[in-house]
Design goal:
2 strands
């Protein structure tokens, strides 16, 4: 394990991260907010520590093994969270370190779970910083580093695989992983700009448009308003955000294929078809339930709000438009089930991912088929491609670990005095990087009232979910440290 090389990479990525503290500092100076001092101090501390980490590497080695790749990816997210919480700590003396870490990790992992009871009471520069952490964490800090830092060019594929979501061994868009990372970020930036312009056309002011564009494209969910998107009683804004939340939950490879005219590859993708079908089916079920119970008098309003809620939950964005905890219990259970779905692999959405559910469903059918025809030769296939045993076992191990941590998290939070519904939905929503849950952590509530112990548990689960569990858990296995 080349610890000096690891420190150098951590320092380089932290150095790049420090530059993103400058825009909110400039905004604070422009608006006359006193928080510019907090951002300046945070920038200087991050800059100094980053340079010290870079100087720690006295070797010429730039090769990164798979073990070092897992170590770097895990430590980068922890390190960035440590630096990222500094503006919260320095700008808000009344905010505890635990709350600052929780808010930062929630932002970077695009979970969107907040401890702030009164969002609008905070300065605009702090709220911009929340959205920036969303935007950086959406596509991934490592992927950004691969796109702009020469130091990550060698061995970059190990880092890319460890951070990008999904179970498969998908081919790169280009022969060089650096070029692939650059393409993904170009598509990401383009989507952000397009959404920004559309929100401006809808009458949203520039500041709010920037924040909500970054939060939407990253599948994050932080808003500048206490009421979240419910503040904007505009059907145009609701539909535009719903569309871009759904797009953010699609594999970014497919966005690139669409932009380069390879639409056949987009329509051929079975995961995307299942993803869109599930959104449609869940929306129809909810509309039927809500109209039957008389929760809405207007079918048009019902469809608009249901599609928004389903899109926000499915893609782990977590924006709030309506208080679905007041819906009938059957409708709430549909929302609870969606917490376990997730978007597509290779997207900014969190969750288990649709492709894993597809693979598991086909594997279950294969086992039933073999019970009837024990001598038959059967393979799990998706789009006429055989799923390798390595991918299949990886999916099985991921799901087992996911539900294992879900169970342990529910037990841990129940010990803090939270009821079962609140505990289970809080764990599911943080592990899936969604944000709002049910019970006491619903869309109109926040996580500020839970205990310090519960906040640390949920912070760990947010990191675990963002890093796809295996990347982080492997560090705690003896075989990882064995030569």
């Amino acid at each position: 394990m080349k610890f000096q090389t690891i420190l150098r990479v951590l320092g380089s990525l932290s150095l790049g991260f420090s530059a993103f503290m400058l825009p909110p500092m400039a905004l604070a100076i422009y608006l006359g907010e006193n928080d510019w001092k907090a951002f300046l101090a945070s920038f200087l501390v991050t800059l100094f520590c980053s340079l010290m980490m870079i100087r720690a590497d006295k070797t010429a080695s730039t090769e990164i093994s798979s073990r070092e790749g897992f170590m770097i990816v895990s430590l980068v997210w922890v390190t960035i969270a440590g630096f990222g919480c500094l503006p919260y700590v320095l700008a808000n003396p009344g905010l505890s370190f635990t709350d600052s870490i929780f808010e930062t990790i929630s932002g970077l992992t695009t979970t969107g779970a907040s401890i702030m009871p009164n969002i609008e009471a905070h300065s605009k520069s702090i709220l911009l910083w929340r959205s920036i952490t969303h935007w950086l964490g959406g596509m991934g800090i490592i992927v950004l580093g691969l796109a702009i830092l020469p130091i990550l060019g060698i061995g970059g594929m190990e880092l890319f695989k460890a951070e990008v979501s999904g179970p498969g061994d998908e081919d790169k868009l280009t022969p060089k992983v650096k070029d692939t990372a650059r393409i993904l970020w170009q598509v990401y930036v383009a989507m952000t700009v397009v959404l920004l312009l559309l929100l401006l056309l809808g009458g949203m002011n520039f500041y709010d448009s920037v924040n909500h564009a970054m939060s939407t494209v990253s599948s994050g969910g932080f808003s500048t308003k206490n009421q979240s998107i419910a503040f904007y009683q505009d059907a145009y804004i609701h539909w535009v955000l719903s569309l871009f939340m759904i797009l953010a939950g699609v594999n970014y490879y497919l966005h690139w294929y669409a932009l380069t005219g390879r639409l056949r590859l987009v329509f051929k993708d079975s995961e995307t078809r299942v993803y869109l079908a599930l959104i449609l089916i869940c929306s129809l079920i909810l509309v039927i339930i809500l109209m039957a119970h008389g929760n809405y008098t207007s079918l048009q309003d019902c469809i608009r709000e249901v599609v928004f809620v389903v899109s926000a939950t499915f893609t782990s964005t977590g924006f709030g438009l309506t208080d679905y905890t007041k819906w009938p219990m059957g409708a709430q259970m549909v929302i609870f089930a969606i917490l376990f779905c997730g978007g597509c692999a290779g997207s900014t959405a969190g969750g288990i991912k649709v492709i894993r559910h597809v693979i598991l469903a086909k594997f279950a059918y294969q086992q039933l088929y073999l019970l009837v025809h024990p001598r038959a030769i059967s393979r799990v296939k998706i789009a006429d491609q055989v799923i390798s045993s390595q991918i299949l076992f990886g999916v099985l191990s991921f799901v087992v670990l996911w539900f294992g941590f879900f169970g342990l998290g529910c037990i841990a939070l129940s010990l803090t005095g939270l009821d079962l519904l609140t505990s289970s939905s809080a764990v599911a929503t943080c592990l899936s990087n969604i944000g709002p849950g049910l019970g006491l952590v619903g869309p109109v509530d926040n996580f500020g009232h839970i205990t310090t112990f519960a906040k640390w548990i949920l912070s760990f689960l947010m990191l675990l979910g963002r890093l796809e569990i295996l990347t982080l858990v492997v560090l705690f296995t003896p075989v990882f440290w064995r030569d």
